[in-house]
From TrEMBL, chain A:
Keywords attached to this entry: Exonuclease, Hydrolase, Ligase, Nuclease
Name of this protein: Ligase-associated DNA damage response exonuclease
InterPro entries from the UniProt entry: MBL, RibonucZ/Hydroxyglut_hydro, Xnuc_lig_assoc
Source superkingdom: Bacteria
Lineage, opening ranks: Bacteria, Pseudomonadati, Pseudomonadota, Alphaproteobacteria, Rhodobacterales
UniProtKB/TrEMBL annotation, chain B:
MF GO annotations: ATP binding; DNA binding; DNA ligase (ATP) activity; metal ion binding
Name the UniProt record assigns to this protein: DNA ligase (ATP)
Gene3D superfamilies hit by this protein: DNA ligase, ATP-dependent, N-terminal domain, DNA ligase/mRNA capping enzyme, Nucleic acid-binding proteins
Organism: Pararhodobacter marinus
Domain ATP-dependent DNA ligase family profile: 305-426
GO biological process terms held by the UniProt record: cell division; DNA recombination; DNA repair; DNA replication
Enzyme Commission number, as recorded: 6.5.1.1
Length: 337, 523
């Protein structure tokens, strides 16, 4: 089969991946008539589409972020659906709560658009489901052989060791509001840290939603204390979106240890650039071994790379004699973590 | 190696001094011998490693990783050791290779054994340990902490005062077993090494306002030279040159060490001197970084000692004697040495403080940064006792500069925009000339922070670029020419002494305010 074989099923367009046969887009970056959304991160799930098809949880998350009227029509994905003669099904991607891969089947050909995905167990979501396919579409955020994310439990153990070594310094952990923040909280709980965890206001709604969905986060308190109160905290962990560290909110803490939970924290230059004292390599994307391992496991006829470090992944494909194609889609954050 | 790698990583990302000390203390407390001893040596630059060239590491990784993938990765990461540490394929079960195993094995290894040895360790390690190992074996470990900071952290594990540790520690070889036994509560060890370092006597600052309370007849005055305070020790045929924190810099200054034909310990200022004239500090800096300087730089930048004091001489400890007696002994001692390399710091004649003030206001040499006052009856006491010795520094130089960039501070100023890059006018452009922060009041800190947030043009990572609106008075101690700075000048110890909310940016100083000073210095 050649790339052309797939083009009635899937095409890169400036607004995102498009399925001509079914006349719909997947994770479009501009408003379209019908959008299928893999997960709730802002670069994949945007407001302004007419009709949106996504997992129940992704629809809920979009409503939290953009308000209940974020689209004219919404439909929760369920089982195998027919969209203009294309059979569509959603499968867990293991990335964040509600994240799915989208599988398209027509005329004996299957294409899978994975969105963002991870192979590391995450109690907030169902594990990545390998769907046999002819065409696999992957991102390549961490597609360099230097990216090998350590077990997240080891990273949390380092954080807790520091919390105990510097009990009077609040440990502020930067983590994105959807997925990463709850992930860090769950890992802390799993490691036996059972005192209240303070969260920045921007994380409130999504943490509540996780709890509603049965994800156990333990005792969460708003990080709205004043300077005097902040001084009395001992062994405190505070989770905040990274942008909060540039806002006056952070000034209530005296001499905090600033951490950041991200796959990028593997690179020392990135740590310094962000002024992070406690880098935590915790990622919800596949690292190099998991990315190449997934491609070997699925062994598709061809794979497409939406964005990221496609040069290294193309080289790997050449070494492995696999057919691959870089799409250079724009609008998806290379930084997304 | 795991603990050591963790320590290095945290030290690298921890900006605060107190937090660094706490990390060092924990490390020295929790790590068994002899690893902590080798770590102390590594942190203070006293480890003889560096057996492997980067090419050896490149060759090892080329056997394991596709060269194109490696090149893409190196290009992205930007540091060879870090790239190799991260990309190295994991094999088998990791083992916590002791630091001592690495140091001891390397010191006995032949050139041909090195590749297999290093590869085996890399196989057994995790990325942060691999990074530390590669930096060690290539001799490129840069921890960025001073010897004094390392020793201060070390002193916290026991009850031995820092200056006693400073006096003794360099008398032992890594892994310093007797030193650690002492800190753990054992007996004070005997130093057997030749020419050990002795803790230095330091001065406290004094201002014009303090002087009337002091009796001018009780003090001697000397110029305060802008070089590096050193201790030259020669005993039993062993000669060593130490910084004032006990770092052995003999290797960098063979032209001094090979001329130390005496038996004793002298205290003085290391300078670059050409035909009797003292060169600016920047000339000395050119020699400081070189572990084994070449003939050319030794000839073009000859080092010299200007001596302040004598601690021991011909087997006699003179430190308890009053300054006047030590001074007489020093003058006698130096008379026998090469006078192009060793001379005695001049004693300044003055009758009262006004007379000294006028000397200080018009020093005969630009490399003088003030005057020193020493009580005539003062013994040589380690540390910084208040009273016997004062430094009366020249008034700082001052320019009015415009704030260009701001970055959030650390520690007490954490979260506030309090670290600034400032610039001076060159034509109608502002050229960055330095970075500084200051102990602002809380009110100023808040007002500055608001200013930064309201006047941001652009952001690069943690740095904000600002509208050219705010003028600050910057005080600094000296100037050097610099090829690393766009402005061509580098300030020494710049700090923001005043915020000029009132002053329009157009009225800030021009770059020529600095270049004129340099031209006047003949630098
Ligand atoms: Zn995502």
């Amino acid at each position: 089969m050649q790339s052309e074989t797939f083009t009635h099923l899937l095409l890169p367009r400036p607004e995102g991946l498009y399925c001509p046969a079914g006349d719909f887009h997947i994770d479009p970056v501009r408003p379209v008539a019908r959008a299928l959304i893999t997960h709730g991160h802002a670069d994949h799930a945007r407001a302004g589409h007419d009709t949106v098809l996504a997992s129940r949880q992704t629809l809920d998350i979009m409503a939290i972020r953009y308000g209940p009227d974020f689209a004219r029509v919404t439909q929760a994905a369920e089982g195998r659906m027919d969209l203009g003669g294309v059979e569509v099904s959603f499968h867990p991607a293991g990335h964040v709560l509600g994240s799915c891969q989208v599988a398209l089947h027509q005329g004996g050909v299957t294409a899978v658009v994975s969105g963002d995905y991870s192979r590391v167990a995450n109690p907030a979501c169902a594990p990545f489901e390998p769907v046999p396919c002819d065409l696999f579409v992957t991102e390549a955020t961490f597609a360099l052989p230097v990216f090998k994310h350590p077990p997240p439990q080891d990273e949390i153990a380092r954080l807790l060791a520091s919390v105990r070594a510097f009990p009077e310094r609040a440990h502020l952990v930067g983590a994105y509001a959807l997925g990463k923040a709850q992930r860090v909280i769950m890992l802390l709980r799993e490691a036996g840290y059972d005192t209240p965890i303070y969260i920045h206001g921007a994380l409130q709604r999504l943490c509540e939603y996780h709890i509603e969905q049965g994800v156990k986060l333990g005792d969460l308190r708003p990080a709205t204390m004043d300077k005097a109160e902040a001084k009395t905290l001992r062994e405190a962990v505070v989770i905040a979106p990274p942008s909060a560290f540039a806002s006056p909110w952070v000034q209530r803490f005296t001499d905090p240890v600033v951490g950041f939970a991200s796959g990028w924290m593997q690179i020392r230059g990135r740590v310094r650039q962000r002024g992070v004292e406690m880098p935590l390599v915790i990622s919800d994307h596949v690292d190099w071994p998991d990315l190449t391992g997934t491609l070997r496991e699925l062994n598709p006829e061809e794979f497409w790379i939406t964005h990221g470090r496609d040069d290294a992944l193309m080289r790997w494909a050449a070494l492995e004699q696999r057919r691959a194609r870089p799409l250079h889609l724009v609008g998806y954050e290379d930084e997304a973590e | 190696m795991k603990r050591f790698a963790d320590l290095l990583e945290r030290l690298a990302f921890t900006p605060g001094r107190n937090a660094k000390l706490a990390l060092l203390e924990r490390y020295f407390r929790d790590t068994p011998d002899p690893d902590r001893g080798y770590a102390l040596a590594a942190l203070t630059g006293g480890l003889e490693t560096g057996q492997a060239k980067p090419a050896l590491l490149r060759a090892l990784v080329a056997e394991r990783v596709d060269p194109e993938l490696f090149a893409l990765s190196y290009d992205y990461v930007g540091d060879l050791a870090e790239t190799i540490a991260l990309i190295w394929p994991e094999r088998g079960t990791p083992r916590d290779v002791p630091l001592s195993e690495v140091v001891v094995t390397l010191s006995g290894a032949g050139k041909t054994e090195l590749p297999a040895l290093i590869a085996r360790w890399l196989d057994q390690m995790r990325p942060s340990e691999r990074f530390a190992l590669i930096k060690l074996v290539t001799g490129s470990l840069r921890v960025g902490i001073s010897t004094r900071l390392a020793l201060t952290g070390l002193a916290r594990i026991g009850t031995v005062p820092l200056d006693e540790i400073e006096e003794l520690w360099s008398g032992f070889e890594p892994p310093y077993a007797p030193l650690f036994a002492w800190l753990d509560g054992g007996p004070r060890p005997e130093v057997t090494a030749k020419a050990p370092f002795r803790p230095v006597m330091l001065s406290t600052p004094v201002t014009e306002a303090d002087l009337p309370a002091l009796d001018p007849a009780a003090y001697a005055a000397e110029w305060k030279w802008d070089g590096i305070r050193v201790q030259a020790v020669s005993e039993g045929g062993v000669a060593r040159l130490y910084t004032r924190t006990g770092e052995d810099i003999s290797g960098s200054f063979p032209d001094i060490v090979e001329r130390m034909h005496f038996d004793g310990a002298l205290d003085g200022e290391l300078l670059i001197r050409r035909e009797g004239l003292v060169a600016p500090f920047s000339d000395l800096q050119k020699r400081l970084g070189r572990k084994s300087p070449g003939k050319a730089i030794i000839a073009s930048h000859p080092a010299a000692l200007r001596l302040y004091d004598v601690m021991t001489w011909d087997g006699e400890d003179l430190r308890a004697l009053p300054w006047t007696e030590r001074r007489a002994r020093l003058e006698a001692a130096v008379a026998g040495l090469d006078d192009a390399r060793f001379d005695v710091s001049e004693r300044l004649p003055f009758g009262d403080w006004d007379a000294l003030a006028s000397l200080r206001a018009d020093p005969p040499d630009a490399v003088i940064e003030g005057v020193m006052l020493k009580r005539l009856d003062s013994p040589y006491t380690a540390g910084r006792p208040r009273g016997p010795w004062f430094k009366w520094k020249r008034d700082p130089m001052i320019v009015d500069a415009v704030i260009l960039y701001a970055q959030r501070g650390h520690g007490k100023r954490s979260g506030f925009y309090s670290d600034f890059t400032f610039g001076l006018w060159d034509g109608d452009m502002l050229v960055p000339v330095g970075k500084a922060y200051s102990g602002f009041t809380d009110e100023e800190l808040n007002r500055l922070d608001r200013f930064v947030r309201n006047n941001t043009i652009d952001r690069f990572g943690p740095v904000r670029s600002l509208k050219a609106r705010l003028v600050v008075e910057v005080a600094f101690e000296g100037l050097n020419r610099s090829t690393r700075h766009k402005s061509g000048v580098a300030m020494r110890f710049p700090r923001i002494s005043r915020i000029r909310w009132d002053k329009p940016a157009e009225e800030a100083d021009r770059l020529t305010a600095l270049t004129d000073i340099l031209d006047g210095m003949g630098a």
